[in-house]
Design brief:
The complex is a heterodimer of chains A (435) and B (272).
Chain A: H1 3-21, H2 32-41, E1 77-85, H3 90-109, E2 111-112, E3 131-132, E4 138-144, H4 145-149, E5 182-188, H5 191-204, E6 209-218, H6 251-257, E7 274-283, H7 285-289, H8 293-300, H9 337-341, E8 354-355, E9 358-364, E10 370-380, H10 384-394, E11 403-413, H11 426-432
Antiparallel strand pairs in A: 1-5, 1-6, 2-3, 4-5, 4-11, 7-10, 7-11, 8-10, 9-10
Helix pairs in contact in A: 1-2, 3-5
Chain B: H1 2-9, H2 30-59, H3 63-79, H4 81-84, H5 88-95, H6 112-122, H7 130-148, H8 154-172, H9 184-206, H10 211-229, E1 232-233, E2 236-237, H11 245-262, H12 265-268
Antiparallel strand pairs in B: 1-2
Helix pairs in contact in B: 2-3, 2-7, 2-9, 3-6, 3-9, 6-7, 8-9, 8-11, 9-10, 10-11
The chains are: A alpha+beta (435), B mainly alpha (272).
């Protein structure tokens, strides 16, 4: 799927990143070749972050047609925080969005923390010291259906497919970790940076919104193999996750799969945005660890060691299974997770989604079992054709015995902050004012 | 008559493994699985009879009688859960819990045994439960019909012993299954009986080669029996809150160990 294009793109990705970092290759502590290998490997959302390659000077531009944090590679840490918004009118909502934009502009670029009179509380939590570095931070703002539904002045502008997340048959949703008026996805190299950003935003917006729930997660960092290629990160079931993700550095593909355009029948203000689906999916890991190895592979549809499809066990995770040659499911069972999720035929191309998941580990359940799983996040231009359709195909899959979605929500990721004078959600506010 | 026809009807599909235990997989499993089908059929027949009486009491507004019938009725369902769960739509409809619904007990979609349990114990009433009772009885009868025409997959039967222990380990040891009535120890009984039945049926096939394994498994089942026996009350058990913390730990360790050990049973029998 991605293979031939990877090599062509790699040098450009390297140049861009070096420019962003303002660093020469030697400053990264390795040979140019070594860095290039890492970059070759680390360019798509699915890929695991490369070990020892992260720097606190890494930065992702927060300005552009689209918000950051969707198609750029996942750093090692991610968080999803959901808020209830208090805004009662368009002025108050604009103020919130402008305040959020100001915090995004500071936090993702970095700089010195203001020093206040010591008789006052400090301006900053201090988690990152006197100087904030970008550390690959992205902050992505999305809106829930309830924000629109509860406000008559905003309701007519609700994106076409945005709805309160429905219950799927295997869900056991906990109301305390579901839905919300506004979601903030925060990704960075380190957990300190994501937590610093969240605390900064909470402090700055305390009059305007209230934290409802949050879930943190991470992506295991991987040392690239001898060929320089990083593999997809493993989830808590021990399988590689994301092998079939679309190539997020392919702009045309992202325009097709992720970004809402003018053709979708969406309100004009929504162009450049995307539908964000968040699912907190608990994994019953003790039970999974007691499941025969062969059955685990048949349930997932991939080999556990390499991630190769079951009809080409000695290949790599990036090879594409040939289901047409296996109509009875002898190699890959017809109800295997990856086969149901993506039939690899022309029709299922319309259901492609861009997954951006993080593993989470929260503690221990009342039954003394590990409370861990997947903070599943995905983006798509059409919620119905994307996640809702794919989940519909997965309903009843054998994997359900081992997973339980317990929380999450559907949100609409706002279009990008176009330039330094713009703010996130400006097109929505303009539409709400009838301008 | 009915039972012999069941045995005759059970067409068994044995899946031969290509794995390390392959040489042991054989038609030897035909008899244990036919016997297991009889066990399941007897239990589901009892489930239908008991549910008929239970739902009749609910519909007649006899709160005390319905409460008394609740736990014994569930016993036969719990014993055959690995097979009942093959029909996930019915399992949700019969045995899902309030946590499965976003609005929990207030959710109009919350059905089955636990919806009735909630009404009986939390509201001390059968108000509004008649349609829930009708649906439960219909679902249980539907389950009986589907099981009668089911070809029992050997790996599901043998794997069922571990599945029963997983059920206890994941959600029952905390006492959250029967959270209104606290009749969890009855459910434990059903789950352990169901798991032990499977072990007994396949025991002759592995008695020689796996003597140590069986000894460990038996010891853990005996620990469970001894512990549960302390809480016996008449035909059943005292409420779960009477279980001491020390005994809860003993049960939890036995359940986890049984889940670990019984998860190897399929492989030991050469099943894929």
């Amino acid at each position: 799927m991605r293979d031939p294009k990877d090599l062509r793109r790699a040098p450009r990705a390297l140049d861009r990143r070096r420019l962003l970092q303002g660093l020469g290759a030697t400053a990264l502590g390795g040979s140019l070749a070594g860095v290039a290998h890492a970059e070759t490997a680390h360019h798509s959302v699915a890929d695991a972050p490369v070990a020892n390659a992260a720097s606190q000077l890494d930065s992702v531009p927060h300005l552009g047609l689209h918000q950051a944090g969707v198609v750029n590679p996942r750093p090692a840490n991610g968080m999803l925080a959901s808020f209830d918004v208090l805004a009662e009118n368009v002025d108050q909502l604009e103020a919130l969005l402008r305040d959020l934009t100001a915090r995004i502009a500071f936090l993702t670029v970095g700089g010195a923390v203001p020093v206040l009179d010591p008789r006052l509380p400090p301006a900053d939590s201090g988690l990152l010291g006197p100087t904030v570095h970008p550390d690959n931070l992205t902050i992505t703002i999305s809106l829930g259906a309830s924000l629109f539904d509860d406000r008559p002045w905003l309701a007519p502008l609700k994106p076409k497919h945005l709805a309160r997340m429905t219950r799927f048959p295997n869900d056991a949703l906990d109301a305390d970790i579901c839905h919300g008026d506004l979601s903030i996805q925060i990704c960075a190299n380190t957990q300190d940076t994501t937590m610093h950003a969240l605390r900064d935003i909470i402090k700055a917006s305390s009059r305007q919104m209230i934290l409802k729930w949050k879930q943190e997660g991470n992506v295991p960092v991987i040392t690239p193999g001898p060929d320089g290629r990083a593999e997809s990160a493993r989830n808590f079931l021990g399988f590689r996750d994301g092998s079939a993700n679309p190539d997020s550095s392919n702009t045309a593909e992202m325009d097709r799969v992720v970004w809402v355009g003018t053709q979708e029948g969406e309100p004009a203000w929504a162009e450049g945005g995307s539908y964000q689906v968040v699912r907190i999916i608990r994994n019953f890991v003790e039970r999974w660890d007691r499941t025969p190895f062969g059955e685990q592979e048949r349930i997932m549809g991939r080999t556990k060691i390499s991630g190769a499809p079951l009809d080409r066990r000695h290949g790599s995770e990036f090879e594409v299974p040939d289901y047409a040659a296996d109509p009875e499911g002898k190699a890959t069972p017809r109800d295997a997770h990856i086969r149901l999720a993506n039939a690899r035929d022309e029709a299922s191309r319309a259901n492609t989604i861009l997954r951006r998941p993080f593993n989470y580990s929260n503690g221990v359940t009342r039954s003394g079992q590990l409370d861990q799983g997947l903070l599943f996040i995905c983006y798509q231009a059409n919620l119905e054709r994307g996640f809702v359709t794919v989940q519909g195909k997965l309903n009843g899959e054998p994997l359900e015995e081992y997973i339980k979605p317990v929380g999450g929500g559907f949100f609409y990721t706002l279009p990008g902050i176009r330039d330094a004078s713009d703010y996130v959600g400006s097109t929505l506010i303009a539409a709400a004012r009838g301008a | 008559m009915r039972i012999s026809s069941l045995v005759g009807a059970s067409t068994l599909t044995l899946v031969l493994s290509s794995g390390v235990f392959a040489q042991e997989a054989s038609l030897d499993l035909v008899e244990p699985i036919a016997d297991y089908k009889i066990y399941v059929s007897e239990n589901v027949a009892k489930l239908v009879a008991d549910t008929t009486a239970f739902t009749a009491a609910v519909k007649a507004g006899e709160v005390d009688k319905a409460k008394a019938l609740f736990a014994p009725t569930r016993l036969s369902y719990e014993a055959i859960e690995p097979i009942a769960e093959l029909f996930s739509d019915l399992d949700v409809s019969i045995d899902s819990r309030a946590d499965d619904y976003e609005k929990a007990e207030a959710d109009p979609a919350f059905p089955g045994f636990h919806r009735i349990e909630y009404g009986l114990w939390e509201k001390n009433s059968t108000e509004g439960l008649a349609p829930v009772a009708d649906k439960l009885l219909a679902d249980v009868k539907e389950l009986e019909g589907r099981i009668a025409s089911l070809t029992f997959p050997p790996e599901k039967v043998v794997g069922g012993a571990a599945v029963l222990m997983e059920e206890v380990a994941a959600t029952k040891i905390s006492g959250e299954e029967d959270r209104y009535s606290h009749t969890d120890l009855w459910d434990f009984r059903g789950n352990f009986d169901g798991a032990r039945k499977i072990v007994e049926l396949v025991r002759p096939l592995i008695a020689d080669k796996e003597a140590d394994f069986l000894k460990t498994v038996d010891a853990n089942f005996n620990t469970v029996d001894t512990t549960l026996a302390k809480y016996k009350d008449g035909e059943g058990y005292v409420t779960y809150d009477k279980l001491t913390e020390d005994d809860r730990k003993v049960l939890a360790a036995a359940v986890n160990t049984l889940a670990e050990d019984l998860s190897t049973l399929r492989g030991k029998l050469g099943l894929d």
